[in-house]
Structure formats: C-alpha cells, structure tokens
Amino acid sequence: MNIGLDVMGGDFAPLEAIKGVRRFFENHPDTAVHLTLVGDTEKVQPHLSLVDTWKDKYTFVHATQIIEMDEHPTKAFKEKPDSSIAVGFGLLARKKIDAFIGAGNTGAMLVGAMYSVKTIEGVLRPTIASFVPRENGSFNLLLDVGINADCKPEHLVQFAQLGTMYMERVMGMSRPRVSLLNIGEEEGKGNILAQATYPMLQQATHINFIGNTEGRDIFLDKADIFVCEGFVGNIILKMAESVYHIFKEQRGVQDDFLDQFNYELYGGTPILGINAAVMIGHGISSALAFENMIVNVERIVQTELISAMQQEFTS
C-alpha cells in the first residue's frame, strides 16, 4: 500500500508532518505501508534526518509550490499545478498512490478531490464526516460537517448511506443506527428540510434509521450516525473544539471524556463519496494527528471501502 502525504500542509509544516511520519514508523514497525511524501525539497530536507532509519519505507516527490491557507481554493489549485496538493492529487489520479492525506488548505483539498479523482457515479454530493466522542468512551459519526451548507433531502439520505458504509466496513460496526439531527424527537419536527428528509430515511432499506435525535444526544449512545446539513454540522464541530480548548487548554481541567475531544486522536476527516481514499487534517495538526491520519486512511484502503461504495451506488 502506498499512501501520499502532503508534508507542506498545516500551520507547523513540514516539521510536524515529518515527525508524524516518524511516529507512524516507530509505532508500527511491521507495517507494509510505503509513504510518498510530497513537498518542497529545500524546506523539507533539513527535517528528513528524523526518518533516516526508514529510508526504504518512503519516497520523496518534489513540488515547487505551496497553496497557502488563505488562498482561494479553486483559483490556487488551477494556478499552482506544481503545488504539493496538486502534485499529490495527480499521483492519486494516476494511481501511483492508493490514498492521499494532508492538513493544508481544506478547500483546495476538496477541489483537488473533485477535479482529480471525481465523485463516485451515482453520488450526488461527497460529504465529510467527523467523529464525536461519547461519554462512554466510544464515538459517534457526524456528517456533513462543512462542505454542503445547503442540502436537499436526497443529499441527507445519501450521507446516511455513506456514513453507514464507513462505520460498517472501516469501523467494523454491524447495522449502525442512523438518526436525523433535529430540534425534537417527534416525526414532523424541524424545518422544511428535516420534515422532507424524515420519510425518505424511513423508506431507505439500506440504512438502520431510528428517527430524530436532538443536539443533547450527540455525546450519548442513542445513535451511531447523526445526519445533518453541513451548516449545522460545522457549527457543532467548531463548538466542540471550543469546549475542549476552553476547559482543557485554558482552565486545565483533567477529565477522560474531555480528553476524547482532542481532534488529534482521530487524525483527520475522510471525504466520503469520491473515487479514492482522501483524508483532510486540521490546520494545526501536530505529529500525533499526522500519525493517526496515516493509520485511519490505511484502514479505509484495507477494507476496500471505495470499491464497495462504487458498487453500491452504481448497481
């Protein structure tokens, strides 16, 4: 398996990305994964000594340009064809690598995925999902969390289907419970989108729909998958991040449940519904986050999630 990594992506690149590579090889000494590191040789070279021990386990591909965090995603992707993101997606499109991960410009990563490997036939819109910790130590899946601010009912139904396949194949969960995030549990509650989506989810035989859930249920064991439009999902995600930052980092609160809010434990956010395994990391990703991104995208490739989705939506 060959996994591509944009080592120029993120606020602390390339150092933290390279340190993440080292962590991965240290903690997984028997791995069959080969990494293809994409970045600017001049900027990366001073840090490659950190991974000297594993020279046979990685390949370096030079990219002369970097898409900065504040650049317009589509414009930058088109105008910087030799950026680490564009080069990485080029390798992915030509099947030189099996997956691609990075913590750079999120919009550019999404544009790269759409332009290079494209959406699976039959999928109306790709979605991005995020893990949300439960108070019992496990986790739920929330989607969409940002790329689809405005949705139609059929989009939410497909998000439920994509989330179900991810939880079943990648996380090994049997018949995960799907819920529609709403302002009340009763059928008929919510805005026009929620009211129209509910009966469609009821009729979807390929998912285990259990009804509506509310915001207070997200951290509980009431459902496994929470479906919503990206506008709502992103607000929830950012609020959870702020709770962690305030109580853990500013006030020094020590709590096992609060520790699970650390985004680095999950590595990154998978893009579901495209023809390859792609994972996007947080812009402030450290070595731990990069390591876990590699681990998680490796699992996606191993379980052949993409080919299963292609069969599901084209059959």
From TrEMBL:
Q: Does the keyword Glycoprotein apply?
A: no
Keyword Transferase set for record: yes
> InterPro entries, from UniProt?
FA_synthesis (IPR003664), Phospholipid_synth_PlsX-like (IPR012281)
Q: What is its EC number?
A: 2.3.1.274
Q: Which GO terms describe its molecular function?
A: acyltransferase activity
The record's subcellular locations are: Cytoplasm
Q: In which pathway does it act?
A: Lipid metabolism; phospholipid metabolism
What EC class is this?
Answer: transferase
Tell me which Gene3D superfamilies the record gives: Isopropylmalate Dehydrogenase
Give the keywords, sorted: Acyltransferase, Cytoplasm, Lipid biosynthesis, Lipid metabolism, Phospholipid biosynthesis, Phospholipid metabolism, Transferase
Q: How does it assemble?
A: Homodimer. Probably interacts with PlsY.
Family, per entry: Belongs to the PlsX family.
Q: What does this protein do?
A: Catalyzes the reversible formation of acyl-phosphate (acyl-PO(4)) from acyl-[acyl-carrier-protein] (acyl-ACP). This enzyme utilizes acyl-ACP as fatty acyl donor, but not acyl-CoA.
NCBIfam families on file: plsX
Identify this protein by name: Phosphate acyltransferase
Organism for this UniProt entry:
Rurimicrobium arvi
Give the encoding gene's name: plsX
